[in-house]
Amino acid sequence: MKQIDVCLSPELLHLFDMRGKVVVVIDILRATSCMTVAMAHGVAGIIPVASLEECMELKAAGYITAAERDGKKAEGFDIGNSPFSYMESYLVGQTIGMTTTNGTTAIARSREAEQIIVGSFLNLTTVAEYLHTLPNDVVLLCSGWKGMANAEDTLYAGALVALLENEYSFATDAPILAKVLYDSAKEDMLTFLSASSHVSRLHNLNITEDIKFCLTPDQYSVIPVLKDGVLVPLTPIETSAN
Amino acid sequence: MKQIDVCLSPELLHLFDMRGKVVVVIDILRATSCMTVAMAHGVAGIIPVASLEECMELKAAGYITAAERDGKKAEGFDIGNSPFSYMESYLVGQTIGMTTTNGTTAIARSREAEQIIVGSFLNLTTVAEYLHTLPNDVVLLCSGWKGMANAEDTLYAGALVALLENEYSFATDAPILAKVLYDSAKEDMLTFLSASSHVSRLHNLNITEDIKFCLTPDQYSVIPVLKDGVLVPLTPIETSAN
Q1: Between vectors from CA B221 to CA B218 and to CA B222, what angle results, nearest 5°?
Q2: How many angstroms separate the CA of residue B59 from the nearest CA in chain A?
């Protein structure tokens, strides 16, 4: 039986052996939601980098760049971290350099994995169906908030665990924790998350519409996948493999 | 308002500023349950050490020693990790050297805190009432399993959060995660935990009676507290302070 595990924070990643695993990187508010939107709206590729400096180098090299720190667009870059910014027609066919507070760091730290894909509520069922076709064990990597576990990423991990639990055994207790959280919150995730620290922080930035959208399941059937350091859409051939 | 936080694993401890905080160390199966039992049954002190080597040095120095690795008594020591072993009359007035897989490491890593106390279901309400009397922020430190979060320690953290939430704000999302887990499991914790990895491991070692006992709330009103590197019972003067 395949195994599933949840890494509650990138700070715990050193405890995982990623070799042979498929990693689903999760940063619901808002990096991996934005990546999903971007691919669905025709962006050709996203280069995830951990630092603002690397992102600035990409800008100097001519890329459109997206940078967020502490919930706000970082100065000097083209796009921030609102999913609606990634629906614009000028981005079609472009490759974007992107750095975010938590999400791109999680990607940088999981390079040993067999494959790295991007998950969000927006492509929830597509991700579950894709994992179903693969023989690999799975690690759901929550980006968290500055090293701490957060509610929204754990919630999404729980939603995936709920869709996959019949096919996978649980490697540790973390999938149980995530699934219990999801079962408690699924009827009204927005209200549930309003008590959480990160969502409070974002509410203060007046991005309630972003949050609502990022919690809406199954808006798209695209999966961003990391290839040679660039996130690109998983092709139809790959998604229908096996 | 005082703040409460939950550290889901000692591997996340470096993210916490422990100065001025009271830390409740949690290793339900079974280190902190054993420590509670020992103090309640007249043990004078417990010296928690991280390694088997340090514990062997204490044995050589004449102490009674307790050592557990991977759920079993380590060879060459006097006592293992069953709470019932700590009820024996020959231990009254003695000081014990103790090392366990996860619990004593958690204590060793939180030395910067203002005060370190030991929590278990066995002294649940007493711990909550004691924290209530203190002005300090609180960190509930789950020992986990080899660096990973585990269900039983998170469950106990959630039980404490449920008792304390009216007086404390949540520092991160981890107290929410813990409380949701507790709310889901509280009606039948043993059945809930039977799905967890650590409890399965322990069931294989035939220690179901230990597990049942460790999940029983409020058997004792003693709190072990760390003083100069030794766990001793909190005195009645301290427990009735303020």
Answers
A1: 125
A2: 32
